[in-house]
Amino acid sequence: MSEHDYTILVIDDEVTTRTTLAALLERPNYHVEMAEDGIEGLELAKRIKPDVILLDIMMPRMNGYDVCKRIRQDEEIREVPIILITALDDHDAKLNGLMAGADDFLSKPFDSFELKVRLHTLRHVDRYRRLLEERKKLDKALNDLSEKNRQLSALSRRVLETQETERRLVAMELHDEIGQLLTGLKLILERGQVDAANVLTEARAVTGELMQRTREISLNLRPAALDDLGLSAALDVLFKRFTKRTGIAVTHNIDPLDEQRFDRNIETTVFRVTQEALTNVARHAETGEVNVVWMVSSTRLRISIADSGKGFDLNLINATTSTGLSGMAERVNLAGGHFSLQSKPGAGTLILADFELNKEG
């Protein structure tokens, strides 16, 4: 059978009918298959997926109407055109056939010219159906693409907004802290001719503080330990700096000597989410302790940050723009993880980030 053959399935329980149709359909580009009843015809239709089905109505075990309904319910063959064959040339038979899903009718005894015309017509019907189906698929693909473009545009805007927010925060730190220290150092040095000894002591102190603040800003932007030593070491440094700066204790089960490495994007995301969560605790929780737990298996990494502070109402989260919770959720989702948040007024807050692992080594 060549790729240009037109496959026709005949489902009829009468040998005479099958023989007659086989003779009428004997053409170079027609490939005819036969089934002796409805059940066999359904199985054969699913296997060969014909271009058209000639289906007798009056058959034992399963009549043509039921076969037609079963075909229309099957995703694989529901679009195949069906011609019902019947000796019943009445209105009710055709109405029942149309209700069952038939496309056309052919009455016994057969007329070769009529059969040829009906098959030719159904080939156009089948082509039209397939074009409509392809158009539906194309429309869906275009709609999906439009939605993806919309999501990408929204994501790009959020990325730009996040970048601007981070730049604004860095600028504020440089202006408010580094700028003030530099101004103070300048004023101290201008008094050098009057009291050189005290000026030198003060200048050293301000310079040391200036160096410390510059180092902290640098670490907040991108900690070297995250790149050089891995996530465990970077988090341990973060916890120590956080406790020293805020006085809030961080209990955790993370081993700073664990050299296990993960996907770079996941490592950065876990670090930033933990950093943001600790910042929120210091600003809003009014508590003296934070508990950080991470669980690592061969396939997953989960980290939770919990505090027993004052908590908040989750229903008001959209109005709480200063906590950066939506930013954390977006960051986790973009890294392919799952973000969840639990909190109640007076009952503390729990942040959980869950990732499928893709280890680098």
CATH class of the domain at 225-361: Alpha Beta
Helical proportion, percent range? 55-70%
Overall geometry: rod-shaped
Strand content: 15-25%
Alpha carbon gyration radius: 38 Å
If you average the pLDDT, what whole number results?
82
Strand order of the largest sheet: 2-1-3-4-5
**Tally of separate helices:** 10
In the predicted model, the low-confidence regions spanning at least 5 consecutive residues are none
**What's the order of the H and E elements?**
EHEHEHEHEHHHHEHEEHEE
What oligomeric state do these chains adopt?
Answer: single chain
Secondary structure class reads: alpha/beta
CATH superfamily of the domain at 225-361: Histidine kinase-like ATPase, C-terminal domain
Instruction: Examine the secondary-structure arrangement and name the CATH architecture of the domain at 225-361.
Output: 2-Layer Sandwich
Q: Would you tell me which CATH topology of the domain at 225-361 applies?
A: Heat Shock Protein 90
The profile of the biggest β sheet is: 5 strands, parallel
**What's the end-to-end separation, in Å?**
54 Å
Number of strands: 10
